[in-house]
Amino acid sequence: MAAIRRPDIEISEFLKDNESSEKWLRSSVVAVIPAYNEARFIGSVVLLTREYVDEVIVVDDGSTDNTGAIARKAGAIVVTHEVNRGKGEALNTGFQKAHELLLPTAVVTLDGDWQHLPEELPLVVDPILKGQADVVIGSRYLKHTSKVPFQRILGHAGFTRVINLLSGTRVTDSQSGFRAFSLEAVRQIKFTSRGFSVESEMQFVASDRALRVVEVPITIRYLDHPKRSLLRHGFKVLSGILRLIGQHRPLLFFTITSIISLTLAAIMILLEVEQYRGDHTFDVIIGILALIFLINGSIALFTGIILHTIRGFVLDMIRPVFNREREH
Fold it and tell me: Residue 60: which H helix or E strand, with range?
């Protein structure tokens, strides 16, 4: 197995810093670990994570192995979904449980498959404890601290560029699951994505709610072959991103739909004109299709404008409330 490069900042040096140590001791930190069939590693992840947080919450998302039992024996609070609901719902459950238990200063999310290093948790949480961020993303690309397979680099780079452009929140690693959230952010965030597009959704939410996003370098290790096809996983993330565009950028989504429909309508109208010039007849089917596409394109355009206006009005009401909570 290839050697893992460590971040430039050593954990021991970080904890020697008086300001960081003092804030750490005065703060409560909860780790939330969504897990689905992670019996192989979950015990080790929980045991090591407990050294850096007040509580570890494992959301057993419908596992068919003994993930939940092992996590509980390792000292985690385990919340069980009877069926697999997806990572987004698992995080929602974990956030709700953390809020009910401790009202923590920070909530950290990490994966249960041992890719993330729990000993880097203080680095990820530090900007939250210092009041510098609402969301902290652990990035494997910020300082190239990880040996990432080439095909993953390509996929991550493509998704990150698209999501950065559409969401308005720029990061280097849009797919990282090692993150930290302030209590205010936990209260504000409710994920609607079921699968692994949940990380992408966070960028849209951060932009909508004016959350401060900071990245820190982390190390990710790849111990096994992917549990799922990278191509299939990529299509699932892409599908989730398209849904997020419709939800968070309705004007863009419906404008594109409108342009496509109106372009098809224009083509069919031109075909009708050419046919009429030739033999002075109309094709009824083409005429009906042209009308359908014309109506559909017009409706899509006005729908996008209306939803964009409503969305802007709602966000204008929400942001001041969140800013007041953050100031207090």
Answer: strand 55-61
Element (H, E) at 138: strand 135-139
CA distances from 311 to 60, 158, 189, 306 (A): 34, 28, 16, 9
pLDDT in tens, 204-260: 888 888 889 999 999 998 876 655 555 665 666 667 677 777 777 888 778 888 899
Beta pairing class for 29-35 and 106-109: parallel
The pTM of the full predicted model, rounded to 2 decimals, is 0.73
Residues near 171 by beta carbon (within 8 Å), at least 6 away in sequence: 137, 139, 160, 164, 203, 213, 215
Non-local CB neighbours of 155 within 8 Å, separated by 6+ positions: 230, 234
H/E run at residue 21: helix 18-26
User: To 5 degrees, how large is the angle CA 33–CA 56–CA 213?
Assistant: 60
Pick the CATH number of 11-246 from 3.30.365.10, 3.90.550.10, 3.40.50.1480, 3.20.20.70: 3.90.550.10
Task: Give average pLDDT by consecutive 10-residue segment, the chain, 328 residues.
Answer: 38 55 66 94 95 95 94 95 92 92 89 92 94 94 83 85 86 92 88 76 85 93 65 66 74 84 91 82 85 89 81 67 57
- Which letter does DSSP use for residue 195 in this model? S
Q: How do beta strands 213-217 and 55-61 pair?
A: unpaired
